[in-house]
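Final report, closing paragraph on structural work. Over the funding period we assembled a curated collection of sequence-structure pairs, and we close with a single example.
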Amino acid sequence: MIDNSNLQLGQSADIPATPEEARLDRVPNPHSAGEYVARFTCPEFTSICPVTGQPDFAILVIDYVPGQWLVESKSLKLYLTSFRNHGAFHEDCTVAIGKRLAELLEPVYMRIGGYWYPRGGIPIDVFWQTGEMPKNIWLPDQGVAPYRAR
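Its predicted structure, as stored:
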């Protein structure tokens, strides 16, 4: 059984004011002897344009092959929600999320796809990855169609 006394899981937690203030929790991977893919999809991700202050919307898909650690999902939800009032460009948001998760989890492999809705008529899709995908792992398509008026 996991000791969750130090986790946000099962406890009242406020939405962090900024991504820097957000706490990401990790838990031991009970299947670290084998390799598999875990996927998180955030279909309603929002941040703020740092120039106009207008909201930006994206679908984020995070795939990773865990090593010793798993990200605790409540802390991930709170972290992603902290971007709602955060001013940053699409590329910065997507890559910063990937890097922070990779630093915390030290995964065998991780990729994040940020599928951003158009701003000024141009959708911007951002992809970042680290590590090498194990040869014996099935990694499905991220399931977000190329832009056709999503």
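The mean pLDDT is 92. The domain at 26-131 is CATH 3.30.1130.10 (GTP Cyclohydrolase I, domain 2). We thank the funder for supporting this effort.
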